[in-house]
From TrEMBL:
Keywords tagged on the record: Chitin-binding, Disulfide bond, Glycoprotein, Repeat, Signal
Gene3D superfamilies according to UniProt: Chitin binding domain
Full protein name: Protein obstructor-E
Domain Chitin-binding type-2 span(s) in chain numbering: 22-80, 90-148, 169-226
Pfam families named in the record: CBM_14
Top-level taxon of origin: Eukaryota
GO MF term (any one): chitin binding
Residues making up the signal peptide according to the UniProt record: 1-21
Species this chain originates from: Drosophila madeirensis
GO cellular component: extracellular region
Keyword Transport listed: no
Length: 242
């Protein structure tokens, strides 16, 4: 009885007249979250309710009092509505829709984008890993299912004292920061955050300067400049043969 009274009051506030809504329809028309199930909703048309389910893997998000849509998990607000329909997965996808890690903690830069039970493989930008909780590409050390060291192929060296003096350490909002040039290229470098690596890229015409800990012009980084000149010389010799 109380629910019907509340529903009627809501309709009165919305339409300015006594339009009696059913208990399932807070307003005569709209979509409304259902009970404790996050992927279920009620669609009301002229105060006639119809129970509906989102496609498997999508959740219902109540956008306004009378509007809502099925969307991906990070963009929905389920709160206490934790129950879901049984999964209807395939060999490729745990559910019909959604984004899922590939299951290999050493290759966490790719993930499966599932639609209608068919997966397409998507790559994160270089150095980033897929975060299943946020559906975004993130630093690998912030992704629980990713082994940052194995994924990036780099282990942060232990800080060794020099002449019994501890090395200088930068400190940022996330903790201790240490900088290392990529062992295979001057264009890239690692920032070790609390002992875990993150990969950065200087771009095409810059090299990492270990002294300034910034990307710099090649002629300001002697060891990289020498490598660049040697590479240019070899390229010129190869072209001269043709």
């Amino acid at each position: 009885m109380a629910k019907i009274v509340i529903s009627a009051l809501l309709c009165l506030a919305m339409f300015g007249s006594m339009v009696l809504c059913s208990p399932e329809c807070p307003f005569p028309n709209g979509r409304f979250a259902s009970g404790d199930q996050c992927d279920a909703y009620t669609e009301c048309l002229d105060d006639v309710p119809t129970a509906k389910l989102c496609p498997d893997g999508l959740l219902f998000h109540q956008r306004t009092k009378a509007t809502g849509e099925c969307t991906y998990a990070p963009y929905s607000t389920c709160k206490e509505r934790a129950r879901l329909q049984p999964a209807n997965g395939t060999d490729e996808c745990p559910r019909q829709f959604g984004f899922y890690p590939n299951g290999d903690e050493t290759k966490c830069g790719v993930y499966r984008n599932c639609a209608h039970g068919v997966a397409s493989i998507t790559k994160c930008p270089e150095g980033l890993a897929f975060n299943e909780e946020t559906y975004q590409c993130d630093w690998p050390d912030l992704v629980g299912s990713c082994n940052a060291e194995a994924f990036l192929g780099f282990n942060c060296p232990a800080a060794e004292p020099v002449d019994a003096i501890a090395p200088e350490v930068d400190v940022g909002p996330e903790g201790e920061l240490r900088y290392y040039r990529h062992p295979q290229t001057c264009k890239k470098y690692f920032v070790c955050v609390n002992g875990h690596p993150r990969l950065y890229n200087c771009g095409k015409y810059l090299a990492f300067n270990s002294e300034s800990k910034l990307c710099d012009f090649y002629n300001k980084v002697p060891e990289c400049y020498a490598l660049l000149k040697e590479k240019q010389r070899l390229k010129a010799e190869k072209q001269a043969k043709f």
